[in-house]
Design a protein that fits this description.
alpha+beta
Length: 492
């Protein structure tokens, strides 16, 4: 059977399903074939989608297909994930000309009849000139109203002779896995291309930034779709197509869109002020595993555990501590730790919010005043150095721990400001090895209490064991970064 015959068969099957599920009787409404639903939506929505082209000077030869066509180096945060999947071509002047022109093609959509257009920031990055082509082939020069590299969103403005057809926002929070969606964009320069699929997953983290919460779709998305809209069957924008997973560079049915619930407030800020201001509380967090939840007495794995608190930060002023688990922020429950950065970022600076915090086996409420995020905020000053003490090793929780000495600081390249006790040996196949511990890591706290000697570690582990739990919470530091892990008492 040819591919076209198979598509026809699927279309008939979908139509039959709709007819079968329709109410019976004289008053039953006539069923609409599925293909007609898509056709009506496409006819209505294609006019709100635009092509975005940019030109810029290139000081060096551009690889064939452009840098957007190249896979990031292995191990990069977006390894095999392509944010930039629109094509490039060199203008006259030759590929080796130091001032050759580079033309890029992407997508966007009209969000206001006056000429406001949403696209991806990477589509217009480093552009000297931006041209928007409407669905009727009208071309207009665009200016940047505002851009935000963190969310990869940008807002453009054109001056049309008449009001433009504009899209309306939908609520991505209501999107379900399995819901049908349409993507419209400019793949490979083919404007007005409509593809369909379903939402394959929600809240995807592809490790591209601190606020990852992508919608995943199997709708065909390729280079040039960047910045284009993802519509639900109500014709509302619920996502902005931004990245694909593609070892080959083409669509394999794994695409990602910025959800509208995240994008809309950012676009509103760009429209109002041309920039985005985010909240900050100065607490570094980590996920709460099942073992950590058991160790601190939580009923299940939930919330975000504080790993460190910046000095003079809102979190410090609210007396939050490493080991606290934030269960809700401003009344919004936190099921996964990565929900917290988005909630904090969305909070307006100087807003007072209430946090539900789990500490010492019980829940308590804390008030905190959110500050403005400053990417250039200096690192907190180091604490006072600790004097070296004579080395003594003990076996605790399946680890060999040793007191810090000048020799160990030099052996493991530990700074003079390092405190705690050093892990000198991690047996293979031990719980510590499974948690990724290695020689040179520092144990700086057991539970919420800091430790500076082997005796303190042993005392606090013994005290925790009396609570009847299976695991003890241990705070570990490596290269200045701290995290909590849960280790079983049986390893002692």
């Amino acid at each position: 059977m040819t591919p076209f015959g198979r598509r026809s068969t699927i279309g008939v099957a979908l139509t039959m399903l709709l007819l079968i599920s329709a109410p019976s009787g004289a008053d039953a409404p006539e069923a609409t074939p599925f293909s007609e639903v898509f056709a009506q939506l496409a006819a209505k929505l294609v006019g709100v989608v635009v092509n975005v082209s940019t030109t810029q000077a290139s000081a060096a030869p551009t690889p064939k297909g452009g840098p957007e066509a190249q896979s990031p180096p292995p191990g990069a945060p977006l390894d095999e994930f392509f944010r930039d999947f629109f094509g490039e071509k060199g203008a006259p002047g030759g590929p080796n000309s130091p001032l050759s022109r580079v033309a890029s093609l992407g997508s966007g959509f009209v969000i206001d009849p006056s000429g406001l257009i949403v696209t991806n920031n990477h589509v217009i990055a480093n552009a000297e000139q931006i041209t928007v082509t409407l669905s009727d082939d009208t071309t207009l020069q665009a200016e940047v109203i505002g851009r935000d590299s963190v969310s990869d969103l940008a807002l453009l403005k054109v001056e049309p002779k008449a009001p433009l057809a504009a899209a309306s926002w939908g609520d991505s929070a209501k999107a379900r896995v399995g819901d049908w969606v349409l993507a419209i964009g400019n793949p490979f320069g083919l404007g007005g291309t409509v593809t369909s699929g379903i939402i394959s997953a929600t809240a995807r983290d592809i490790h591209s930034g601190p606020y990852d919460d992508f919608l995943q779709t199997d709708a065909s998305i390729n280079r040039g779709n960047s910045g284009g809209p993802m519509f639900n069957l109500a014709g509302e924008v619920i996502g902005i197509n931004t990245a694909i997973f593609s070892p080959s560079g083409g669509s394999i049915g794994i695409g990602f869109a910025i959800p509208s619930a995240f994008a809309r407030p950012i676009v509103d800020q760009l429209k109002a002020t041309g920039k985005v201001e985010r909240g900050w509380i100065g607490a570094r967090i980590q996920p709460v595993s099942e073992e950590i939840a058991e160790a601190v007495g939580l009923d299940k794995s939930r919330g975000a555990m504080i790993g460190a608190v910046d000095q003079a930060s809102p979190a410090a002023q609210a007396k939050l501590q490493p080991g606290d688990v934030i269960l809700s922020f401003d009344g919004k429950p936190i099921d996964r730790s990565r929900q917290l950065p988005r909630l904090v970022a969305d909070a307006a600076p100087d807003t007072v919010v209430k946090l539900s915090v789990w500490r010492d086996g019980k829940e308590q409420e804390v008030e905190l005043k959110v500050a403005a995020l400053n990417p250039n905020r200096p690192a907190p000053p180091p604490s006072e150095p600790e004097k070296p003490k004579p080395p003594t090793s003990v076996d605790v929780l399946g680890l060999k721990l040793t007191k810090l000495t000048a020799e160990l600081r030099k052996q493991f390249s530990l700074p003079e400001t390092a405190k705690g006790v050093v892990i000198n040996e991690v047996p293979q196949n031990s719980p510590g090895a499974a948690q990724g511990l290695r020689p040179g890591d520092l144990v700086i706290a057991v539970g919420h209490e800091l430790v500076g000697s082997l005796e303190e570690v042993q005392q606090k582990v013994a005290a925790s064991k009396k609570n009847g739990r299976k695991n003890v919470l241990v705070r570990v530091e490596r290269e200045g970064n701290t995290r909590f892990i849960a280790l079983p008492f049986e390893a002692s």
